[in-house]
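In the previous chapter we treated chains in isolation. Here, by contrast, the input contains two separate entities that must be folded as one system, with a combined length of 424 residues.
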Amino acid sequence: MILTTDYSTLTQKLNEWYNESANERVQSWIGQQLFDVSTTDWQTYNYLILNGLAKFDRVAEGAQLPVATSVEGDSVTATQKRFGGRISITKDMRMFDRYDQMQELVHSGVDFAFDRIDQSQADMLLNGFAGTSFTDVYGYSQSNLTPDGVVLFSASHTNNQNATTSRNLIRNSAGTANPALSRDAIVTARKDAKIHKDPNSTNRPVDLNLLVVSATNEDLAERTVYSSGVQGTPNVDLNPLKSKVSNILVWSRLDVRSDGTDTSAYWFLADSKNIKKTLKSPFAQKPQMGESAQVHDSLNWEYPIDAYYTLFLGQPFNIFGSTGAN
Amino acid sequence: MSINLGQLASQGRAKSSSQPWATEELEALLLLEKERSLNRLDAADYVRNGILTVEAYDASKEAAFKPKTIEDAKAEVDATLMKGGALFGKAKVVKPKK
């Protein structure tokens, strides 16, 4: 029987199980490879995107250098939100030393926390094609707009300098938006990203070298990118994508959105060096398990697992997306 | 997460300071800008008034339609509220009887 005097021993044991489980889960947390999940102590994050500061000009002798100001950009604010749950070690579990059940409770609690965080991040991409907000995995409204007021994946992102627009919605060589995953669409998206210009008409190339797909598209993605020849054709050309797309990220949470929609055809291309400037998910506290409190009417010992984080979008052009519908 | 819709609206890049453009509205805005060489603020006023196609824009010009701006709409609402005494500071103050 676990007595009150054994409280600290049990808490230590639960913490060990928690850490063991959390270590595994952090490794399989795909969202952190795309989202900026750095730790912050700011409750409200005020993020500025700049559409290319056009202040690098020739200056006459003795003249002042031109000034670039933040007025040129668009901004977004995001506030940390708390998420969590409690693991309840019941009196019966303690009475009969049911350690196996306690261990399972901790493991399952940790799994669920990371599963939901990962799905909430996947949903940001999956809901990035229409509307202005969506219901997140926790049942709350989440904006899917980038700081320019346009949905994440769009053929017409605006800027506050002039009327030019830029795209990060994937199209194929025929100009059809939202094509299914194919070599042609990857090549066209990479070209679109390379010739991306800022509002000042300066080329700001984006190197889309990371292909992000659902589990359903894993095989097609690998054949398209890793085949030594051009996938699906009898010609003997070498497959140039093999060296251009350096990595494929298979994210099974892309297969079905948390609202139940089948999104297995959705696919994305990202610039692995800069993607975290677009997908932001700062944590004020990564998931942690705290000390328990005893609930007096049940004599349960309840251990809280909680985290603080938020989700928002920055400069959109480091990721291109397609619903694969066409 | 909240974006600066007030600033975007003042540049014609959002419908209002509390509402972004719907996808079809943004497309209409860009179309009017491009096809009829309107500046973004003017195009935004037409779209806010429900004119979403080039044909509808041309018809509105023929009919000498003048789109209501955000300021016009705000002034109209203020006037209506003021008329009913609903605006703070404008309501009739009733002095208590001694």
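Chain A has one domain: 4-49+81-322. The interface with chain B takes residues 74-79, 130-132, 142-143, 145-151, 154, 156, 158, 160, 163, 165, 310-313 of chain A (CB under 8 Å). Compare these points with the single-chain example from earlier in the chapter.
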